[in-house]
Amino acid sequence: MLEIYGLLGPKPQNLNGTGGGVPLITSQDIAASLARIKIPGPALLVRTMSGDYSSLRPLQQAFTQHVAHMAMMKHWKAGPKYNDYFEGLCASALHFYVLPNICGRCKGRGEVKQRDGRILKCPVCDGAGRRDADDKAKARAAGIPISFWMDTWSDRYKMAWDLLTAWDGQADDSARRVFWNDV
Question: What own/partner pairs with CB < 8 Å and gap ≥ 24 does 43-47 have?
Fold first, then answer.
């Protein structure tokens, strides 16, 4: 799906590996396609992952609101220190999701070509195309001491990550419908 997101971006890329060129997709085409994705969070995720980083702030706001609602429903502690940790958690999860560590084995494609020509799911990233950062990097990015991270915040990070994964799935489905309906 990252290839489709690349086509939606403001500077479309040729998928044959020859790089850019004169885009056949105009900004009006992109706006019309993205307008057909009705769910705000996934729509913003598609825009951001397609390279439209102007949508990163609204994505962060929508994501933080959804995680705040989840935190309220799960009765997470509140207070000045916890509010700072919460903001850091959201920023860290979004950063590592939108600007992921690309898998070195498959170069972000999620699949590897074997010598015999077969194409298999990448064994390193399990087909995701990216590898998640370790707990120390996540805690450092969130501004949360590692001891607090391991006790409480790593589970919360997983919940926030799961929300982004759900949005990503909804965005993939919507983008596929947009492309297949336009063909």
Answer: 43/171, 43/174, 45/98, 45/164, 45/167, 45/168, 45/171, 46/5, 46/8, 46/171, 46/174, 46/175, 47/8
